[in-house]
Specification:
The complex is a heterodimer of chains A (about 350) and B (about 300). Chain A contains 16 helices and no strands. Chain A is an all-alpha fold and about 350 residues long. Chain A has a domain of about 240 residues: ABC transporter involved in vitamin B12 uptake, BtuC, CATH 1.10.3470. In chain A, helix 2 crosses helix 3, helix 3 packs antiparallel against helix 10 and helix 7 runs antiparallel to helix 10. The longest helix of chain A has 30 residues. Chain A is globular. Chain B has about 300 residues and is mostly helical. Chain B has one domain. Helix content of chain B is about 70%, strand content about 0%. A two-stranded antiparallel ribbon of chain B has the order 1-2. The relative contact order of chain B is 0.20. The model of chain B has no long low-confidence stretch (mean pLDDT about 85). The chains are: A mainly alpha (about 350), B mainly alpha (about 300). Chains A and B meet through helix 5, helix 6, helix 11, helix 13 and helix 14 of A and helix 4, helix 10, helix 12 and helix 13 of B.
Chain lengths: ~350, ~300
Amino acid sequence: MNLRSVVIPLVAIILALIIGALIIKLLGMDPVLAYTNLAIGAFGNIYGISNTLTQATPLIFTGLSFALARRAGLLNIGAEGQLYIGGLCSVLTGAFIHGLPMIIHLPLALLAGFVGGGFWGWIAGWLKVKFGSNEIITTVMLNYIAIYLVSYMVSGPIIEPPGDLPQSPPVLPSAQLPYLGSGTQLHLGFVLALIMAGLYCIFMWHTRKGYEARVVGFNPDAGAYAGINRNQLIYLIMFLAGGLAGLGGSGEILGIQHRLYQNFSPGYGYDGIAVALLGLNTPIGTVLAAILFGALRSGGNLMQVVAKVPLDLVYVIEALVIIFVASEYLFRRVKLPKLNFRFRRGIERSEPL
Amino acid sequence: MSLSSFIAASANFVNSDIQTAMPILLAATGLIFNERTGVVNIGVEGVMLMGALAGVAGSFLLGNVWLGVLVAIAAGGILGLIFTFFVETARADQVVVGMAFNLLGLGLTTMLNRAMFGLNTTPPRIDSFHPVSIPFLSKLPFFGTAFFTHTYLTYLAFLVIPLVSFIVFKTNIGLVLRSVGEHPRAADTVGINVVRVRYLAGMVSCMFGAVGGAYLSLSQLNFFTENMTAGRGFIALAAVVFGKWSPAGVLGAAILFGAGSALSYQLQTLNSYISSSQLLLTLPYVLTLLGLAGFVGKAVGPAASGKPYIKE
């Protein structure tokens, strides 16, 4: 951690909140009332805090998914679809296999989500290796295919009898993620997300494959010169990134919804991109950014009810935060000319290797 | 099925294909300008959404649908200016700013739509485009229904797209655009202002994207709904790669995608099973994937794509 990687996100958040306040003012509403309720809703009591962490959970998974691929020079816009396939595979194992003890059933359902999402990511990797297809486009196409596939599954092949509603049968109790406290929706998936952040750190900075991934991501030519098998790496990275996003879907299905529905994700996959960008693709940064976004969502509801500010302001604030973080070159030139000298080492080391 | 009813059905099919393809085609045509200069705007989805709302707002407030289109064009120009400022002047990552634009487009349009038109009310009556039959030509068998009973905006797009093709490949302007995308340093050496070219191309690109969005809200429907672009911006990005950065190729890609959508709708009406229609909806996306894998082969874009130009 160096100064720049803390100061810039903070300045970006503050600037985004100021512009958000101006927009609220322009719409003829009260920004102070809005932000007070946003904060109370997100952190005001134990319910708010647990809601914030619950909302953050899928974003940690999808954020790590984007960050992992990005470090290896791949752009995984497909976390949304991978998350849907993860949810689907978790329901297939969690709701249709009977008679297993929880100690086997729950890990099996999670593993199915990981492998399912991983397979969906792997397809994009395969298309890239075999046909040179740009992964930005293939992953977006795969998102739509996955979303419609889930809609198809829950309105036909795995619809709950007698088939009145487009939803799957419930996940068996032996495959549900237990809640972390009574009266909250915070479930074991949050802990799993933190463990995944730790594993991401170990993989990327303490294993040979992780090192190779960073070399290829930083400079593909250097990677090729060093004899790194890039194609094999693309398969592995896209599988792992897909798997992380798939676990995000498993967490939502096995931890909260306990069934598969159509359109069960409100865009967690796309939000994960923003989370990873704000967290500078680091494990800790991604977790913190996910919690910030979770807080905006959790508090946004109260803001909407009390101050009548539409929840969608949250998206505007998120977008502004991302733009300002990405424009750090401006800050470097304008805001931190003197600090530049003192922290030069830090600046150089924080380049994305 | 008799021959005449078959002709009528296929003419309707082509007609609805053109309508489905047009927003994608407009946005993708604009993206050609941008991408030819080495800038990839994956925020085009957000730009289309803002264009869709700007068009409705303009038509609603000014009372004329053409003024609505002008407002959308102006909004697109401003967005293009902002986008290029961040990716060129502030040297931010193009993918990052693009994704932020998508979020911003969704959030802002939803907020402003509710602020302007309220929630849960019937959409206000606005001036919008209606299909116009061209005299004589619209009486032709097949071609009349397929090509000559569209809205004015569609006819205008028919004219603009060949014009873009001409500009990109046959004029000096096109040469400048392409040289900036392939080798900005060389372009700079011969006296081309790389950054200015990218600003202009970025603005034109977003204007097209915004009109693509306004086509949805003023020509296909006559109101704005939240997130009404529903991924068409991403399809437009795919169409550009699919069409190998040429207007004719993009036309083919958009028509193919439109055909996939039109086909899945028509099959849905034939098929009584609700469940399998969901699967049919994946058809356009599967076609695009197969197309990327099979037809196109390795698609190689402009060489300097994705990087800001930094003068030494």
